[in-house]
Amino acid sequence: MNILLVCQGGMSSSFVVKKIKEAFKNKGECVHIISKASMEIVDYIDETDIVLVAPNVLYEIEDIRETCTQHGITPVILPMELYGRMDGEALRVFIINSQDGGNDG
Predict the structure, then answer these.
(1) By residue range, what is the domain housing residue 24?
(2) Within 1-105, where are the H helices?
(3) 77 bridge partner residues
(4) Is residue 55 part of a domain?
(5) Which residues carry this modification: Phosphocysteine (predicted)?
(6) Residue 14: helix, strand or coil by DSSP?
(7) Is 7 exposed, middle or buried (0-12, 13-18, 19+ CB in 10 A)?
(8) Measured in whole angstroms, how far is the alpha carbon of residue 37 from the centre of its chain?
(9) Of 47, 52, 77, 87, whose CB is crowded by the most CB atoms within 10 A?
(10) How far apart are CA 24 and CA 81, in angstroms?
(11) CA distance 7 to 55
């Protein structure tokens, strides 16, 4: 599973990426996740299965949604409480559940 976390490229997104990787690894599941600024989506979206949107870039959601839709992907907005807690396992479950269509943006 290839995940692109759209963010502002700060430290918080680095921690979130690390926590998500650890949670998937602890369950024996393979995931590749990177964080990039919204202007870089087009450079990575073709190799992406899931686009997660950090709460701090919601002001750009319309542009993000348009880019994702053009590539057949529905962006998944990360709730602030999950993002802020940096609970890798809760984020892992959220990501898995989002694939069932329950958390789309």
Answers:
(1) 2-98
(2) 11-26, 41-44, 61-70, 80-85, 88-98
(3) 53
(4) yes
(5) 7
(6) helix
(7) buried
(8) 12
(9) 52
(10) 20
(11) 8
Residue 58 included in any domain: yes
> What's the token pair of residue 83?
């993002």
| Domains contained in the chain, number | 1
CATH number at residue 67: 3.40.50.2300
Contact assessment for residue 17 and residue 33, using Cβ atoms and an 8 Å cutoff: yes
CB 7 within 8 A of CB 54: yes
pTM, 2 dp: 0.89
Instruction: Let me know if residue 77 belongs to a domain.
Output: yes
Confidence label for 9 from pLDDT (cuts 50, 70 and 90): confident
Structure tokens at 56: 């701090």
> Are the CB atoms for 64 and 53 separated by under 8 Å?
yes
